[in-house]
Amino acid sequence: MAPRRTTTKTPKNTPAPVPIEPAPCQPCGGTGNVAITVRVGRKRRPVGQQDGLCLNCLGSGTDPDA
Length: 66
Known about the structure:
This protein has strands at 33-40, 45-53. By secondary structure, the protein is mainly β.
């Protein structure tokens, strides 16, 4: 018969993994939109701005390099 075990191991409590927050895109600041200048006329003068899709992150708002 095997000798009886008198010591017990304490269970190791590992902390739950923390979800990693993706870094925001630099050109759009995490919004996915950037300001595009609207030009009109033969001389192509700027008259205002409109929202356009961020070409760095393609509208997701997260940094594609990270």
